[in-house]
Automatic annotation (TrEMBL), chains A, B:
Name recorded for this polypeptide: Methanogenesis marker 2 protein
Organism encoding this protein: Methanogenium organophilum
InterPro entries documented for this protein: Methan_mark_2 (IPR017668), PurM-like_C_dom (IPR010918), PurM-like_C_sf (IPR036676), PurM-like_N (IPR016188), PurM-like_N_sf (IPR036921), ThiL-like (IPR006283), UCP036540_AIR (IPR011413)
NCBIfam families: methan_mark_2
A GO term for molecular function: thiamine-phosphate kinase activity
GO biological process, alphabetically ordered: thiamine biosynthetic process
Domain PurM-like C-terminal stretches: 187-307
Residue ranges of every copy of the PurM-like N-terminal domain listed in the record: 44-150
Gene3D superfamilies reported in the protein's UniProt record: PurM-like C-terminal domain, PurM-like, N-terminal domain
A Pfam short name: AIRS_C
């Protein structure tokens, strides 16, 4: 049950710094844009697609929020690998190798970070193949980049959602609120290696079977914030029914719905799906233990609207203000 | 002319933190090592080689020392791209794309970093295709990762120097001490795009023509420190004649020889070369405006010895203590 009003939930999502801290991205894109023929897709997607002869390579980078690193360095190290593996999976790709860049102030923290990275690297079978170390930093920072491969014909993008497509959210609910971080849902440390690898491979299947029009892994901005980023890149809007968003028993775990929709779900994707493929997409997610549901529809309004009963609220009017502020001709 | 004694120069190199800060690398390698069949070479080389079907991919990461970022954010941004391009070039590869991870405390610094990154990206024609931004960091950090490609058959490694091979150092002397950083020699900002791209491509030619047994780009540890890292990975030693190391007119620019050998040369490589190929290697470097010289020989002693006149000093006894402390069975 959704116990807050749509206005309250929209406010909570808009004000959440997991969302607001995405705003400076557009300016950076402007500064660095260099047109080259072999990079058909770059900023705004989870990974850049680089054409290398006939094959496609994916390159992505992610840093770990210092808030998480302070709270739990082991989990931060685990997440550094997890979020990068998700960036490649979200594009329908196969992760190949990771490099890490560690700034280390405190060697105990460093050991825990490395332990977490190693565990995730082994669990997802993606080796950490090198990197760089700043041994004398003023603060601890973990940055990770990942290489993947994808057949460009079957890649999944963020900018290709189509009007009228259904929106499917899929989250692994067999988890827990992470003990160190109330805004992280953790299923990946509890699942076996085979289980998490199967979950990651679903996106590859969605790509090769051409079942989705666009997709993204659900990251720090949560399910609605991530959908907003996808819509911004696609220059579309959406109408989302809050009651349909997959969720665990919130009363049992003692959190509110507006808390849940802001969480980083650990293993979650949001995809846009032509109506005829929705059943197959739900079935594939469900086959790997992920709760998936049709939560709404893509519109041409460039507004992300949430609905609950008869009430509805515009969370983002992307024509007026984007979440990332990505330049319009990108 | 070398005006210090070999002992003084050896002390200066050993004590230089550009060298000493490499020591924690071995421990990190131990923590993260995951054996996977598609990664024949990883830690200890400038980039990891990843087998992707028949082709080879290179993945490397480098961070920019906060000391440089504080001194000159534009130059730090330029260097972030420069050092990563060098990591791929050093392997005989072709750089394809870069991702950056910026931690930003101060937006003025960020703008200058981006300006420097963009200039280098355009000059070397390697696009920055994405990345991650921490907009609310406690300090400014630039980390960059790079993807390249190489035919595995023609890749240049660090661990393959052979006993009796000659050592060639090549540095672009048409430069200046960087005004913001006394330990950086800068030629790349002064050269045209065509010139720097030709210098980068020389390593690719050395690889495809099978002219070198091993190689590395000269980085923060300077020419002797970088050679030491190559020898550590190859489990070899060397005897180096200091008088033969390429240098600008040191009196004219007002620095001492021990300062010069610790400098980051901006565009420099050290390669090991079977005797019969030395002339051709010198010719190729010289053809792109780089001063190259045969500076010594690879030995089986695992000691890096510098010589000047009749004096000689062991700078590193790599059997006793490695520069990186890389595990022996790596």
């Amino acid at each position: 049950m959704v116990e807050c009003s749509t206005d309250e939930i929209a406010d909570a999502i808009r004000a959440y710094d997991g969302v607001t801290r995405k705003r400076a991205i557009g300016e950076i894109i402007e500064s660095l844009r260099l047109v080259t023929p072999n990079v058909p897709v770059s900023f705004g997607d989870d990974a850049a697609l680089i054409q290398n002869g006939d094959s496609g390579l994916l390159l992505a980078a992610d840093g770990i929020w210092s808030r998480l690193l302070d709270a739990d360095p082991y989990w931060a190290g685990f997440c550094a690998v997890l979020v990068n593996v998700h960036d490649i999976a979200a594009m329908g790709g196969t992760p190949l190798a990771i490099v890490d860049i560690l700034s280390v102030k405190d060697s105990d923290v460093c050991h825990e970070v490395l332990r977490g990275m190693y565990e995730a690297s082994a669990k997802f079978c993606v080796p950490v193949v090198g990197g760089h170390l700043h041994p004398d930093a003023e603060m601890n920072v973990i940055d990770v980049a990942i290489l993947g491969s994808v057949n460009p014909e079957y890649a999944i993008f963020s900018h290709t959602a189509g009007e009228g497509d259904r929106i499917v959210a899929a989250i692994d609910l067999e988890g827990r609120i992470h003990p160190s971080c109330a805004l992280n849902w953790d299923s990946a440390t509890l699942r076996t290696a085979e289980e998490v690898r199967a979950q990651i491979r679903v996106m590859h299947t969605l790509g090769t079977d051409k079942l989705v029009s666009a997709g993204k892994d659900i990251s720090n901005p949560g399910v609605i914030g991530t959908l907003g980023m996808l819509l911004e890149t696609s220059r579309k809007g959406a109408s989302v029914c809050l009651d349909d968003i997959p969720r665990p028993d919130l009363d049992a775990i003692g959190i509110t719905f507006d808390h849940w929709v802001r969480m980083y779900p650990g293993m979650g994707f949001v995809v846009t799906v032509p109506a005829e493929s929705v059943d197959r997409v739900l079935e594939l997610f469900s086959g790997v233990g992920m709760a998936a549901a049709d939560i709404g529809v893509v519109t041409d309004s460039q507004k992300l609207i949430i609905r609950h009963g008869d009430a509805e609220t515009t969370v983002f009017d992307l024509k007026k203000q984007g979440i990332m502020g990505i330049p319009t001709d990108n």
